[in-house]
Specification:
17 strands, seven-stranded mixed beta sheet, 2-enoyl-CoA Hydratase, Chain A, domain 1
């Protein structure tokens, strides 16, 4: 071997060695990034009964489909010695993958790194993920586990929240956005989840509030624990902020998957159809006797819903809040639908402030993502009272009118019993451009109930009567026979058909099929002015 050849071989060995070193360096950096805030911080997270940011992503996505983005991002802040605490990922894992074969984008805040606090670098990572989701028309999933704004970064942290908020708004109605609360969320951090379509909270480990217990105590003198101020139980039952609540993180993640199974990837797609394997045909005859003989006796409208829809397909949303109305996703002959139903078991199914807001927001979501709406109506009216009037039942009831009238997706309505006064109009009536309206023989469509109507119409006769109770009963029965039935409305075309309860599933399937081709447009405008 001559000298030149020997030198050439040595150079190749050096190059190979350098290449190996660079590869090893990459693997070491990857390993460092995968360890988040370090083993001690991970152990502390586990002791609290919480998963790590990466475990959450792994449980959500189909195995082997996760592609991480911006793994090596770190902050550039040196305030308050923060330069000594620089971690890869900067406290959030971002990327994309698949859920049951469907493309989704995901970010998962890492509490093991600076408490998951949001600074400039973390905000840019989240914003990039949101941009990619919107650009590529895919759902966005966020796991929130953060102490809030990174104080050391000052205005840069606050600017980061603004960058996220504007993207939440721009993506609204274009791609589904789901927030899964798995840890704390305080201050400005709560507003991004509030802007998304669905908030899933996890019992015992998650909480949301604008100001914490110590600030509340200092300002108002009120004592409250984290749970009492903004835990999952509070936001699922009292405020309505939580749409679903998981008993643990695994159940919360399963709720995400279940939600996605009903939703299209974006507003230009139709929702995913599934072939049905089991129907409720054997249970349909029970519907003929589900309505009590006495119109004052309540019943659970879920008995109707669960028999009419495809078996095993009903995901109720905001189950513990505004329980006088029920909303949720289901399927009818394999096609995803949104359900809105008055609940006679609670406040007799009357509409109040919370029920109106709950139903209106759900209807607007369904309309944005091409999901047909089926309404089951048994409503005696709007809930009376000083509290309701003083807190704006007029405004909130108008939200429900607006939502039904604005929706251009297929809309089907079934009146099972009472449909009185303004509440009849509001609950998916023909007058708000519903496509097909059915009524059961037990339906009572009138300005008000028989007793109230008789007392107004015959007040003088009743005042003169020696036997007021007997006369009232006679007049009430006459009014019910003549007016409180579905046939007068059917004669006017306000009801398309009066059907047997046992026919409901078949009739709805038949009516929905042609409506899937429906094309309806609103007048050109920038946007309407919803009565917020």
């Amino acid at each position: 071997m001559n000298l030149n050849t020997e030198l050439g071989t040595q150079k190749d060995m050096i190059k190979k060695s350098n290449s190996e070193k660079k590869n090893e360096e990459l693997l070491e950096k990857r390993e460092e990034a995968l360890m988040g805030g370090g083993q001690k911080a991970i152990d502390k997270q586990s002791e609290k009964g919480k998963l790590t940011a990466r475990q959450r992503v792994e449980l959500l996505l189909d195995p082997g489909t996760f592609s991480e983005t911006n793994m090596f991002v770190r902050h550039n802040c040196s305030n308050f010695n923060l330069e000594k605490k620089k971690f890869y990922t900067d406290g959030v894992v971002t990327g994309f993958g698949q859920v049951n074969g469907k493309l989704v984008y995901v970010y998962s805040q890492d509490f093991t790194i600076l408490g998951g606090s949001l600074g400039e670098a973390q905000a840019k990572k989240i914003a990039y993920t949101m941009d990619q989701a919107l650009q590529n028309g895919a759902p966005l999933i966020g796991f929130n586990d953060s102490g809030g704004a990174r104080i050391q970064e000052g205005a840069n942290s606050l600017a980061g929240y603004g960058d996220i908020f504007i993207r939440n708004v721009r993506a609204s109605g274009v791609i589904p956005q789901i927030s899964c609360m798995v840890g704390p969320s305080a201050g400005g951090a709560v507003y991004s989840p509030a802007l998304t379509d669905f908030v899933i909270m996890t019992e015992d480990t998650s909480y949301m509030f604008v100001t914490g217990p110590s600030v509340v105590k200092a300002v108002t003198g009120e004592d409250a624990t984290f749970e009492e101020l903004g835990g999952a139980s509070i936001h699922s039952a009292n405020s309505g902020i939580a749409h679903l609540t998981g008993s643990d993180e695994i159940e919360s993640i399963e709720f995400i998957k279940l939600l996605l199974s009903y939703l299209p990837s974006n507003n230009l797609e139709d929702p995913p159809i599934k072939k049905i394997t089991v129907t409720n045909d054997a249970d349909l005859e029970c519907l003929n006797s589900v309505i009590p003989e006495d119109p004052q006796i309540p019943y659970d409208v879920r008995e109707i819903i669960l028999r009419v829809v495809d078996k095993g397909n009903f995901l109720e949303i905001q189950k513990k809040w505004a329980q006088n109305i029920i909303v949720g996703f289901s399927r009818l002959n394999g096609y995803p639908i949104g359900i809105v139903a008055n609940q006679p078991n609670n406040l007799a199914g009357a509409l109040d402030i919370n029920a109106s807001s709950k139903a209106a927001r759900f209807i607007r979501f369904c309309d944005a993502f091409n999901i047909p709406i089926i309404s089951f109506v048994d409503v005696p009216g709007f809930l009376p009272g000083l509290d309701q009037e003083h807190n704006g039942i007029i405004k909130h009831g108008a939200k429900l009118i607006y939502a039904y009238a604005e929706a251009t997706v297929p809309k089907l309505t079934v009146i099972t019993r009472k449909a009185y006064g303004g509440a009849y109009i509001v609950m998916g009536s023909k007058h708000l451009a519903t496509d097909m309206n059915f009524a059961w023989p037990s339906a009572e469509i009138a300005v008000m109930g028989a007793e109230g109507a008789v007392q107004v119409l015959y007040r003088r006769d009743l005042a003169k009567s020696d036997d007021k109770e007997t006369l009232l009963e006679e007049l009430k029965n006459e009014f019910i026979e003549e007016f409180n039935n579905p046939y007068l409305a059917a004669e006017k075309g306000y009801i398309d058909d009066v059907i047997l309860p046992s026919e409901t599933r078949r009739k709805l399937i038949a009516a929905l099929w042609p409506l899937l081709r429906k094309r309806d447009k609103l007048p050109n405008k920038k946007h309407g002015n919803v009565p917020l």
